[in-house]
Design a protein that fits this description.
Layout (H helix, E strand, L loop, with lengths): L2 H7 L13 H11 L3 E5 L5 H10 L5 E5 L5 H9 L3 E4 L3 H4 L8 E4 L5 H14 L6 E5 L10 E2 L13 E2 L23 E3 L9 H11 L3 E6 L5 E6 L5 H8 L6 H22 L3 H53 L1 H14 L5 H11 L2
Parallel strand pairs: 1-2, 1-4, 2-3, 4-5
Antiparallel strand pairs: 5-10, 6-8, 7-8, 9-10
Length: 359
Amino acid sequence: MDGSAGAEHYRAPLLLHSLAEFREIIYGCLDAAGVRSIAEVGAEDGHFTSELLQWSAGRDVRVVAVDPEPSAALLRLAVDEPRLELVAKTSLDALPELDALDAYVIDGDHNHYTVLHELRAIASNARNQFPIVLLHDVAWPWARRDLYYAPDVIPDDARQPYTFDAGVVPGDPSVVAAGFRGEGEFAVALTEGGANNGVRTAVEDFMAERPGLVFRIVPAVFGLGVLFDERAPYAGAVDAVVAVYDGNPLIERLERNRLDLYMAVLGGADGRSGPVGELRSALEQAQLHIRDLESENKALWAERAEHEERAEAGRRLAAEVRALIAAKPFRVAETVARLRSSSGVSRAHVEAVLRELGL
């Protein structure tokens, strides 16, 4: 299946760092190398595993997924796709037990110790030459800084000092309160750079042990690395797929811009800095102002209700007065008062008035 078909199948989650964003490049490399067997290390929810199954549909290709804690989605995928072999072990336990494969996708624990030993295990299993290996996170932030999902499984002398609480930002070799961080899901090395620190450093150290390898980097979406043997019959074809991206200044600028925007979003989510943070602050001020207006509005409504109550009492009083002056006794009293004010009032006058009034 070609890349366009894979794109129709794929529905990307909002991760900002999915390996599936490289699908066309990865498929191109796998096709160029004539891959008939492949293992994905760090399958997580099986999203890219599904991509590999789509790519390999209709071909005689073996697909293996390695993950020590398969998610429910990955387990369902293994049931629905009999072609998928699921190995529920850590990479360092699983890889030595696997037969030699044509290709590997490494996207598991992004630290120097794990990646170096994954590459060593792959090399030990290789038949005649080192296979093609595609590695994610060979650019910032894990190129020169370790990440640990389970720090305790890394030997003490191979593990960097780390924290689960802080985060990282581009250009700062230390850690910060905000930035890109694991929220308890993973730990980060306290310092960027230096020996035995980071994914790219692990690849370079492995290449120093094993000359004759070519390493190309696509500097986007945290970096895709393509490692292959320069003596492989497909070396030229694979290099033709990836060399154009390696160190491409336009892609590097786009990635820097993407990271700036990513950090702005994270800063805003933390309520600390960045355009989103400024927007959050403005919204909070607006909410306070709205609450003040609502309080003032309630007071005005209460005052209006009081005025309406007084007006209603006045209307009731006026109605009672009108009823009173319309009554016959009031008319009698009014006539008598008028007669009294005139000269000479006799009983006959009063009787005449009463008759006139029908009383």
